[in-house]
């Protein structure tokens, strides 16, 4: 009941729960995004510290990749006492498939200054259950629980969670678990059925104003298709206590 099994210091084998949605013989990108966040948070050999918290996760997706072993590499691009820029990448079959650049900052008590966050979503229990397998195939889609309130095609509020571990036998933080669900934003509020229109995302960037809690991830999502083959998915991110940040995904839109 995990998405990956560690096979070495930097290598991970995908399980059947990583099967893709566009093609089931490829890996769904969502668990890989969580895996990269996990290695950034835990790779002491590369970073040598754990006193900074990620506030931006910016992923570039280099293309589809098969259900083969992933090799994760981490390096610090910009060290600092209070701010650090870290780059991590996943390789599959000798090819880079995802790059993450993460800004991490020192935490401090700014509770007296906090404000300006969007209002909360209707709680998960007040949002109707929805089966994403009615739209998408694949092991990852089968592994998540979704609740959705659809306003119109391309506009919805969604709650998602999974009881699958990210890496078998490892303690994984709430941020990495949430990061492993972020890519669901583009697939849970579709403007058009994927059998009719393809709209894969080539990137995903999440900005966080506080760390997520465990459990449900909320996505208040709008999907836009432009007139020349580009698209954009935008989401306000929530946990059960309220807003935690925002994400954006660039889409390539074309007839399927």
Automatic annotation (TrEMBL):
<dbReference type="InterPro" id="IPR042171">
    <property type="entry name" value="Acyl-CoA_hotdog"/>
</dbReference>
<feature type="domain" description="Acyl-CoA thioesterase-like C-terminal">
    <location>
        <begin position="138"/>
        <end position="253"/>
    </location>
</feature>
<dbReference type="InterPro" id="IPR049450">
    <property type="entry name" value="ACOT8-like_C"/>
</dbReference>
<dbReference type="InterPro" id="IPR029069">
    <property type="entry name" value="HotDog_dom_sf"/>
</dbReference>
<protein>
    <submittedName>
        <fullName>Thioesterase family protein</fullName>
    </submittedName>
</protein>
<feature type="domain" description="Acyl-CoA thioesterase-like N-terminal HotDog">
    <location>
        <begin position="21"/>
        <end position="104"/>
    </location>
</feature>
<dbReference type="Pfam" id="PF13622">
    <property type="entry name" value="4HBT_3"/>
</dbReference>
<dbReference type="Pfam" id="PF20789">
    <property type="entry name" value="4HBT_3C"/>
</dbReference>
<dbReference type="InterPro" id="IPR049449">
    <property type="entry name" value="TesB_ACOT8-like_N"/>
</dbReference>
């Amino acid at each position: 009941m995990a998405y990956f099994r560690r096979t070495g210091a930097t290598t991970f084998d995908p399980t059947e729960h990583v099967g893709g949605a566009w093609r089931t013989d490829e890996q769904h990108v969502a668990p890989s995004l969580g895996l990269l966040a996990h290695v950034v948070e835990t790779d002491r050999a590369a970073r040598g510290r754990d006193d900074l918290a990620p506030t931006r996760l910016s992923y570039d997706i280099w293309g589809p990749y098969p259900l083969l072993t992933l090799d994760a590499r981490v390096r610090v691009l910009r060290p600092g006492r209070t701010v650090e820029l870290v780059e991590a990448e996943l390789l599959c079959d000798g090819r880079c498939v995802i790059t993450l650049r993460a800004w991490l900052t020192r935490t401090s008590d700014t509770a007296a200054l906090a404000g300006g966050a969007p209002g909360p979503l209707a709680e998960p229990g007040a949002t109707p259950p929805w089966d994403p397998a009615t739209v998408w195939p694949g092991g990852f889609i089968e592994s998540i629980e979704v609740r959705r309130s659809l306003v119109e095609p391309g506009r919805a509020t969604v709650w998602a969670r999974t009881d699958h571990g990210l890496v078998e036998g490892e303690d994984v933080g709430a941020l990495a678990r949430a990061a492993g669900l972020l890519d669901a934003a583009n697939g849970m509020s579709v403007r058009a059925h994927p059998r009719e229109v393809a709209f894969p995302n080539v990137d995903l960037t999440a900005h966080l104003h506080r760390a997520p809690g465990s459990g449900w991830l909320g996505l208040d999502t709008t999907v836009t298709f432009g007139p020349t083959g580009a698209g954009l998915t935008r989401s306000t991110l929530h946990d059960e206590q309220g807003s935690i940040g925002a994400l954006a995904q660039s889409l390539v839109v074309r007839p399927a």
